[in-house]
Structure formats: structure tokens, C-alpha cells
Amino acid sequence: MKLLNAFLRLVRLPNLVMIAVTQVLFYFSIVPLYNGDEVWIYSTFTWQHYLLLIISSLLIAAAGNIINDYFDRNIDEINKPDKKIVDKLIKRRWVIVMHIAFSLIAILIGFYVDSQTPVFWLGFSNAICVLLLFAYSISLKKKLLVGNVLISLLTAWVIFVCFICYYRTLACSGCEPTEEWPATLRRFMRISFLYAGFAFVISLIREVVKDLEDMEGDRKYGCKTIPIAWGIPAAKVFVAVWLVVLIGMISVVQIYVWQLGWYWSAAYSILLVIVPLVWILRKLYQAQVPKDYHQLSTVIKLVMLAGLTSMIFFKIYS
Questions:
Q1: Sign of the alpha-carbon dihedral angle for 46, 51, 57, 60
Q2: How far is 236 from 285, CA to CA, in rounded Å?
Q3: pLDDT at 177
Q4: How does the average pLDDT of the chain come out, rounded?
Q5: Based on C-alpha coordinates, what's the Rg of the chain?
């Protein structure tokens, strides 16, 4: 049981659950599949293929978390000595074996899906994601902004890869030759980009807050994170600017949502996304020690989950 618990901590089980929830909600709430009496919107990318996509996403994320902990074991000895897993609970050679196994399975799943669907790039994109996460773990995370932006892009990719798999494989039987079908595709694109953009920005915010939390160990091992390179005040300003951008973006969307009569959706977003973001902005300037930044990082993760979960309202109101 102790070993199982260590494994689940190593692969970051809560993060994997968030990825799975996001992609499942995207399928059931955002993808415009419909089977009516006269109109049938369908895709050659079936739910079985989508399930394989989710599994490969989880394996890539787990492999990335594993290899990151492998290369971070010295830094974690300083920043999180009580949470260290590699060497302490799981031997290094098994960590490498798990990373290779998860990565290879994810890549093979991608190529299998490519062979069974019109999608032809999933295997290569999975391989690129694995390589980027490996590069992040060994060097890119130590470079100013590069690691932060990379992780944020890969977070957005969790949503965007789902959009790409369906956008080119959707078809409509019984649709009138009018603007309705192109309008449906444009709506699908706008919503997908909206959530991918949200995932990117809030992930970037959280990455910099985590850098503020981990400054001590990062500085000792030569990391050039924003707080180390620019200083804590500048890092806080950077986070605050993106928080204001995110709050503004979500507020504008809620005005539009309110005009559509989606009152419960607007109330949900205001209470569980906008208000917590304002609280984070306020607490950011009061934060002084790693414990404060850890609390902010945890709340940001919960806001990310709340924001992504709001996809369900597209199902409710459609």
C-alpha cells in the first residue's frame, strides 16, 4: 500500500484526474455530435478512438511527471524533503523503466489511432510531447520563461488535441445547404480556443507561483526562473498582469453568456472562477514565504478545475 501511494504521488494522480475530466467533458459537452430524426452530426473519430486518446494523454502526463521527479530529486531535497519519492520510496531504475514504458505505450497508441482514423499525426504529436517533457525536465525548466511557457502550451494542448481530432472528421447528414453547418463548426472552434486559452493563461500563472514557492532549491541548482532572474516583486507583477487579463477575459465572456440567458452558467463562473481569481490577486502581494505560495498554487489549481468543468453548461443549455 505504501508503494502504491508513492506511485500515485509520483504520477500526480490529481493532475491526471483533471486531464481525464477535461477531455471527457470536452467530448460530452463541446463536440457537436447529434443524432436526430432528420439531422445527424457524426464523426469518423469514434468514442473508442477518443478513449485511446485520453489514455495516451494520461500516460504522457504521467511519464512527464515521473521523469521530472527523477531529475528534480536534488532540488526536492531542499524544497520538499518530506515529499521526495525517487530514491526514498521508489528506486531510480524503476522510475526510468516506468517513464520509458508509459512513453512508448502512449506513442504506439497514437500511431494505432492514426492507422484506424483520418487522423494521421497523433503518433508523432505524442512523441513530440514526450520529448518536450523530457527536455523540460533536464534543461528547459531552468531557462527563463521557456519552461513556464512550454508547460502552459502542453496544458492547452490537452484541449486542443481533442479539437483537432474532431474538427476535420465531423460531418453532417441532413443539414441544409445554408450557413448553419459552417456556423456550427465555427462555434466549435471558438469554444475550443476559449478553453485552450484559459488553460494556457492559468497554467502560466500557476507555474510562476510555483517558481516563487521553490526559489531556494532552484537558486542553488542554477535555475533561471522569473523570481530568481527578475526578483520577487517583478515576478508578482508578471503574475498580477496575467491575472487581470484572465479576469477581464472571463468577465467579458460572462456578459455574453448572461445575454444568452445562461444565468446559472454566469453565476457559476463568477462565484467559482472570477471571485477566487480576485482573491488570488489580493493574496499574491501579501505572500511572503513558500507556504503562502503553496496555498496560492493549490487555489489556482482548483480554479483551473472549476473553469474547465464549466464546459458542462454547454451540454445543459444546448
A1: negative
A2: 7
A3: 62
A4: 92
A5: 21
